[in-house]
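Q: Here's a chain of 116 amino acids. Please give me its 3D structure as tokens.
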Amino acid sequence: MIFIETGKKGLTMVLVLGVVIIIMVLSGVMLSLIQSQSTQTQHQVRRIQAYYASFAGVNLALERLRTGDWNIGTYRICPAGCSAPDINDGSIGFTVVMDISDAGGVTKKIKASTLY
């Protein structure tokens, strides 16, 4: 059992209030750090998804060039709403744009880009 002298009740209340305020400040800092890390992780995941979607677009362009389906021009892989000869693919979250240009002779230059 804790006994507090009558004159020190106010001091105890101020001490407890100070401890509670310190705990609240530390909790706020921790929550801010957690939110920052979550946002950064989400951005990194979307960037990696966009990279691999573009990489898949390059592989598709190489295959389409090999089979003769595509030639020099701009083609898109869209989540939805593309018209031929572009491709609709609901499994990607980004529109991938592939620019195929002539690099001299039979050589073609493929540039894939996406916004995430």
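Q: Can you summarize the key feature?
A: The chain is about 50% helix and 20% strand.
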